[in-house]
């Protein structure tokens, strides 16, 4: 976390608003954030450090298999989720167990990937984080962030060569010169008290509340960029599906 803080300080300016209520600290807690860039996990770690929180991420299995990074992920007790494999469903149980075994919160990206929404608003998202919260009976803190997408380009889906790494690294070096402002907002806990893990439709309802809370927190962070980001990333693909969480 100390190294991460130095990297983010070198990259740009970090602005943090909101906090985690004192009565939710030291107990099982899920944090759900929008996913906008390759560097935003480091931005979130730095923001959490400023708020005296040590989050554990639910991360793709490839990170755990990588040299150096994999050792760090395992030592930090982060939670592995293998995409596209039969074991993917095990992530829910792993998170529930992780919440009960450690007082540090678990941070999840409900969208499951970097957003490809045309204007970089949150995508519909999956019900995984909602099912985790309902199964564990734990509060959910929505986290909204903006600006991390300027710190490193999207690049490619899978890094397979030194050239692929250079595309990412060189975009970060350009950001060091520009010094973008990276904003993170910790929202109020999402009320899921009337929902149950075993009731049909409640996981989708919980997902909707979480995604709306993230979107509402994001609006003031990008007040000067309501329609589309001013920063253009030519490597980033987009879908034709607009965010369902905005009033249009």
Coarse structural class: alpha/beta
Write the CATH architecture name. Answer: 3-Layer(aba) Sandwich
CATH fold topology:
Glycerol-3-phosphate (1)-acyltransferase
- Radius of gyration, taken over Cα atoms and rounded to an integer in Å: 17 Å
Reading side by side through the largest sheet, how are the strands ordered? 1-7-6-2-5-3-4
Number of helices: 8
CATH level 1 name: Alpha Beta
Give the tally of β-strands.
7
Distance between the termini: 40 Å
Largest sheet: 7 strands, mixed
Order of secondary-structure elements: HEEHEHHEHEHEHEH
Mean pLDDT: 89
- Helix share bin: 25-40%
Shape: globular
Number of domains: 1
Bin the strand percentage.
5-15%
Given as residue ranges, the uncertain stretches (5+ residues, pLDDT < 50) are: none
Structural key phrases:
acyltransferase, Glycerol-3-phosphate (1)-acyltransferase, 7 strands, 1-acylglycerol-3-phosphate O-acyltransferase activity, 248 residues, 1-acyl-sn-glycerol-3-phosphate acyltransferase, 8 helices, alpha/beta, Plipid/glycerol_acylTrfase, transferase
Please tell me about this protein's structure.
The protein contains 8 helices and 7 strands. 38% of the residues are buried. The protein has a single domain, classed as Glycerol-3-phosphate (1)-acyltransferase, CATH 3.40.1130. It has helices spanning 2-11, 40-50, 61-65, 69-75, 90-101, 128-136, 162-178, 202-218; strands spanning 13-18, 30-33, 56-60, 79-81, 106-108, 140-146, 181-186. A 7-stranded mixed β-sheet has the order 1-7-6-2-5-3-4, sandwiched between helices. By secondary structure, the chain is of the alpha/beta class. The termini are far apart. Helix 1 crosses helix 2 (40-50), helix 5 crosses helix 6 and helix 6 (128-136) crosses helix 8 (202-218).
């Amino acid at each position: 976390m100390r190294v991460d803080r130095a990297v983010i300080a070198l990259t740009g300016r970090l602005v943090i608003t909101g906090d985690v209520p004192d009565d939710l600290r030291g107990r099982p807690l899920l944090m759900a954030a929008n996913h906008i860039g390759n560097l935003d996990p480091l931005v979130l770690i730095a923001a959490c450090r400023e708020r005296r929180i040590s989050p554990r991420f639910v991360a793709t299995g490839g990170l755990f298999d990588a040299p150096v990074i994999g050792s760090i992920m395992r030592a930090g007790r982060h939670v592995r989720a293998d995409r596209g494999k039969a074991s993917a469903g095990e992530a829910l149980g792993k998170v529930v167990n992780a919440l009960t075994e450690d007082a540090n919160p678990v941070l999840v990206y409900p969208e499951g990937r970097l957003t490809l929404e045309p204007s970089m608003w949150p995508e519909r998202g999956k019900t995984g984080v909602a099912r985790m919260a309902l199964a564990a009976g734990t509060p959910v803190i929505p986290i909204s962030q903006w600006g991390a997408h300027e710190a490193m380009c999207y690049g490619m889906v899978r890094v397979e060569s030194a050239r692929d790494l250079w595309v990412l690294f060189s975009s970060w070096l350009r950001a060091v010169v520009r010094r973008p402002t990276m904003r993170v907002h910790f929202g109020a806990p999402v009320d899921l008290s009337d929902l149950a893990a075993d009731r049909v439709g409640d996981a989708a309802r919980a997902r909707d509340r979480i995604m709306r809370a993230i979107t509402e927190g994001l609006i003031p962070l990008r007040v000067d960029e309501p329609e589309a980001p001013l920063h253009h990333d030519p490597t980033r693909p987009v879908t034709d599906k607009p965010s369902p969480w905005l009033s249009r």
